[in-house]
Design brief:
About 5% of the residues lie in helices and about 40% in strands. It has two helices and 22 strands. The strands form six sheets. A four-stranded antiparallel sheet has the order 3-4-5-6, with no helix packed on it. It is globular. The protein starts with a strand and ends in an 18-residue tail after the last strand.
């Protein structure tokens, strides 16, 4: 794992600089070594880095997601549990040691505005960490699909939960309900993003994006259709446009309104043909 920070930053300030809303934290572009909204404007030569090679982190853990709280702690979701990093030390949270945590394979993380940490696990449901206490929401709590693939916080604090086989669920006041979006009943949700009072939903196959305003759901297919693959991530840039990362055709751009033109973003000279963007933030 490698973090970069400008030279004048101290080690403690690196964590603040790494705020997930201020920089791109997980970017994977196969076939293109350039950057699309990827790194701060400083050249790599003007930056310093520190490479942490703690045995467990470097050799055993597959980091799948990142989230950061206002206290500066960086949380990492991995296939072997949660890891917290304070800039110096790594702390580990696994089901064998933590009451309320029943699965260690994390797919996604979300730090809510109230500083509650949420995690989506593979077959272990939704994990909630509030005031240092863990709770897992399972089928018995109304979460009929325990393979949680994506999370997003809505305007009123509701947590939208994307699942592998049963669309979207909602967590309100510690109660889980199904979003009852007919078109998503048996769809694999791959990513979620909330903006402008609507939930944007990226599906796992065929480059399909959905828009739900709480009442109506609209689906559309990105240009090139099935060649696009999975919709990996959706964010809103500082220019007001939505940026959509896909697994096979790189990045797309559109205004945050259904029916607007969707354009594919070319990369440097050779373009992004055949490239896959894993995830990004603005």
């Amino acid at each position: 794992m490698m973090f970069f920070a400008p030279r004048h930053f101290t080690q403690r300030r690196v964590i603040s600089w790494m705020n997930l809303r201020a920089c791109l934290c997980l970017v994977g572009l196969w076939g293109w070594a350039g950057s699309v909204l990827a790194i701060p404007p400083q050249q790599i030569q003007q930056m310093i880095h520190r490479h942490w090679e703690e045995a467990v982190v470097a050799s055993e853990l597959n980091v799948t997601s990142l989230a950061q709280g206002e206290d500066g702690y960086l949380w990492m979701g991995t296939t072997e549990g949660l890891v917290r990093f304070d800039g110096v030390r790594f702390s580990y949270f696994r089901r064998i040691e933590v009451p309320g945590l029943i699965h260690d394979n994390f797919r996604t993380l979300l730090m809510a505005r109230d500083q509650t940490l949420y995690g989506g696990t593979v077959e272990g449901g939704l994990v909630q960490m509030r005031k240092k206490e863990f709770r897992s929401f399972l089928k018995t709590d109304g979460l009929l699909d325990q393979h949680v693939t994506a999370l997003a916080e809505m305007e009123d604090g509701t947590i939208a939960i994307g699942t592998y086989n049963h669309g979207v669920f909602l967590l309100r006041n510690q109660t889980v309900t199904h979003a009852s979006i007919e078109q998503l009943q048996n769809v694999s949700v791959n990513c979620l993003f909330y903006a402008d009072q609507a939930l944007w939903i990226g599906e796992l196959e065929k480059g399909i994006v959905g828009h739900w305003d709480g009442k109506h759901y609209t689906r559309f297919t990105l240009p090139s259709g099935s060649k696009v693959g999975a919709v990996q991530s959706i964010v809103k840039g500082p220019d007001g446009f939505l940026y959509i990362a896909t697994s096979k055709q790189g990045l797309f751009k559109m205004k945050p309104k259904v029916g607007e033109e969707v354009r594919r973003i070319p990369g440097p000279s050779t373009g992004l043909g055949g490239s896959g963007a894993m995830a990004f933030d603005s």
